[in-house]
Amino acid sequence: MKTVVISYSRTGNNQTLAKAIAAGLSAEHVTITMPGEKSFFSIGMDMLFNRTPKVNATNDKPGDYENVVFVGPVWMGQIASPLRSSVKKHRNKLQQYAFVSISGGADGPNTKLTAELKKRFGKDPAAVVNFLIAEMLPADPKPTREQTEAYRLDEVKAKELARKVTEELKTFS
Q1: Which of 24, 31, 37, 170 has its CA 20 to 30 A from that of 45?
Q2: pTM of the complete model
Q3: What distance in Å separates the CA atoms of residue 72 and residue 14, rounded to the nearest whole number?
Q4: Please, what are the domains in the chain?
């Protein structure tokens, strides 16, 4: 089955993870970018008003893949707004999809993420893997949003996380 990894990353963490996942799955990697950097205010407005911003995507053709792995941050319990345009393109043509994220987690786990994905896609994901940066940092003192925002995933840690993801995505073969 043909698989593609489609990613958006504001800080670079999800991009690093997506590259490692694509390599582990021998899949094509499509990167979504924004014309400019998203401010925290803009992110909040996107989430509050359910906006889908304009994005640039390389080779993002719906229906060309049986399996799509979306990789991106979780903002305020929802998938990052720049991924929404790709979700809309692929929504009705997907056989299977999965969602993978490395996100801050300073406020705890994203307990409603699977429901958010089902709402956006109209069906359950094959897998949801949400790594929390807060769990990768020392627990004492409790990590702050500033610390999780400053964290940068290196390639060694990305490969380790990608191995966990590919194990979770056995159904994609």
Answers
A1: 31
A2: 0.85
A3: 5
A4: 3-172 (3.40.50.360)
